[in-house]
Amino acid sequence: MKLSNNSLKWLMRFYPPLFFQRIWVKHISKDFKTIEVVIHKSLLNRNYNGTIFGGTIFSAADPFYSVMFWQHFRQKDFKVLGWLKSADIQYKKPGNTNLTLIFTLTDEDVSEAENALNSVGKFSKAYPVEARNKQGELCAMIYTEIWMRKIKPDQHSQAGF
After folding, report:
1. Which residues are CB-neighbours of 16 under 8 A, at least 6 positions away?
2. Residue 77 and residue 98 in contact, taking contact as beta carbons nearer than 8 Å
3. Which residues lie closer than 8 Å to 141 by C-beta, 6 or more apart?
4. What are the C-alpha distances in Å from 122 to residues 5, 61, 112, 115?
């Protein structure tokens, strides 16, 4: 199903694995090439040191690059399946305040993926995302490797939205 950027934003805001960890989608660009996410520090995601639980930071980085590609291609009636294949997270300093993550795809990223999907039928690449606190300091660096494959026209997507 094709979704508008605003519909996807609201769907992701209330998706239980994100909602209950206080992961809030703040903005999705119309072309699905930028998503801004905020992790609100709260009792629900605080560890015993009083900082944001590392698993929450990891969860905030998990779905977005796959969703961005999926929706961007869906708008062009190009069907793909995508998952997070692997991730590497490096914690730099404790998340004492809300954290912001900004996911960005360039035209070159999209072209590279589309060319691979059209020629090989699958695509895999790692993309970096930073988790920054209110002061702009780097708290975590996450590298998320996404994996996608092209769906044949007669196949149906397994994606839930």
Report:
1. none
2. no
3. 89, 90, 92, 128, 129, 130, 131
4. 25, 22, 11, 10
Nearest alpha carbon to residue 63 among 8, 122, 132: 8
In terms of residues, how long is the chain?
161
pLDDT band at 159 (very low <50, low <70, confident <90, very high): low
Is pLDDT larger for residue 72 or for residue 60?
A: 60
In the chain, alpha helices (H):
5-13, 16-19, 54-61, 64-75, 107-119
The model's pTM is 0.90
Q: Which option is the CATH number for 5-150: 3.10.129.10, 3.40.50.720, 3.90.70.10, 3.40.50.11030?
A: 3.10.129.10
